[in-house]
Amino acid sequence: MKHIKFLCLTLLLIFAATLSGCGSNQPKAKSVAVCFPNTTSSWQRNGDSLQKLLEEEGFTVNVQFSATIEEQQKQVKDVIGKNPDCIVIGAIDSAAFVEVLENAKKKNIPVIGFDRILSNTDAISYYASFDNGAIGDGMGEYIAAALNLKNGGGPFNIEFFAGGPSDNNAHIFFENTMKILEPYLKSGQLVCRSGQTTFDQVAVADWNSANARPRIQELMSKYYTDAPLQVVLSPNDDIAGVILDEIGKAGKPYPIISGLDGDPAAFERIKNGQQTFTIAKDPDVLTAKCVRMIKAVVEGTQPDINDVTNYNNGVKVVPSYLCTPMIIDKTNVNSMAAK
Ligand code: BGC
C-alpha cells in the first residue's frame, strides 16, 4: 500500500512538473490597452475593428470607451498600472495626457496616438491617422467645385460648423477648408449671413452633435426664414445628421453639405439626396496600419511610417502613418459597403 501511495505521488509530481513545463514554453500573449472616446459611432467601429485584428494576431486586448476627459484620464492611468505591452489612445482632449503619460514613459510602455495626436508629450511613440490636412482640403475643394466658384459661381449663402476645440484634428480640418473657401467669402461669391466664420464661433463643443442643434435652429430662424441656406460646412456625419434634421424640420430645402467618417447613416442620406458627400475613413484601413505599428513597437522593430514632418506635437515631431481618405457622394455611394 505504501508503495502504491508513493507511486501515485511520484506520478502526480511528474504530471504537475510536465504541466508547468508546458506553461513556461508557451509565450505569454502580449497585451494592448485601447482607450477611445465614445463621441461618435465611428469610434465604436474603430474599436471593434482594432479588437478583431489584434486578437487575430494573438494579442490580449482591452478596449475601453469614455465620455469625458476626466474619465479617460482615469482609464489611461488605470491601464498604465496594469503594465500592458502597448497603449493606444484616441484622445478626447489632445493635450490632457501630459502628466498621466509620464508614468507610461517611466515604465517604458509604448503609446500610440490613434486618429488624434497626443500633444505636448514625448511619451507618444507613433501616430496612426488619416491625412487630416487632406480631409480639410477635400471638403473645401468639393464645395468650391460643386458651386463652380473658380469660374465665378455665386453668390451662395453658406454657414460653417467645426469640430470640438480640444481635438487637434478639428482645427486642421477647419483651417485647411477655410484656406480654400475664404477667398470666395472675400469676393462675395460666398455669403455668410450670420457672419460667424471663425473657429471659435462655429466649433461644436466635444464634437457632440447635440451641441450643434441649438445653433442651427437659431441660424435658421434668424437668418434663413426668407433667404435660402444653400451650403453648410459640417465637420462630420454625426453633426451633418443633426443639421439636416433641423433644416428638414424648418421645411427648407437641403443644402450642399459636407460630412466625415463614412457613417452608414450618411451613406443612406447620400442615397436619398439629403447629404451631398462624406469623406470616408475606412476603419479597417486605419486599424490595419495601427496593428502593424503595435507589432513593431512590441517586437522592437520599425513600423511603416509615411510622414515625419507634419505632426509636431509641441515637444517632438511624431513619426506618423497617414492613411488616404475617400470622398463618397451620389456617384459612388452605391459601390460602398457600410462599415
Ligand atoms: C475624427 C473624426 C470624428 C471626430 C468625432 C475627430 O478627431 O478625426 O473622424 O468624426 O473626431 O469623433
Structural account:
This protein is of the alpha/beta class. Helix content is 43%, strand content 16%. The protein has eleven helices and 13 strands. The strands form three sheets. Strands 2-1-3-4-5-12 form a six-stranded parallel beta sheet, sandwiched between helices. Helix 10 links the parallel strand 10 and strand 11. Helix 2 packs across helix 11, helix 5 runs parallel beside helix 6 and helix 8 packs across helix 9. The longest helix has 24 residues. It is elongated. About 5% of the residues have low confidence.
Quick summary of this structure?
This protein is an alpha/beta fold and 339 residues long. It has helices spanning 2-25, 41-56, 69-81, 102-106, 132-146, 168-187, 199-202, 213-223, 237-249, 264-271, 283-299, and strands spanning 31-37, 60-66, 86-89, 111-114, 124-130, 156-160, 190-191, 231-233, 256-257, 260-261, 277-280, 320-323, 326-329.
Question: Can you tag this structure with a few keywords?
Answer:
13 strands; 4-stranded parallel beta sheet
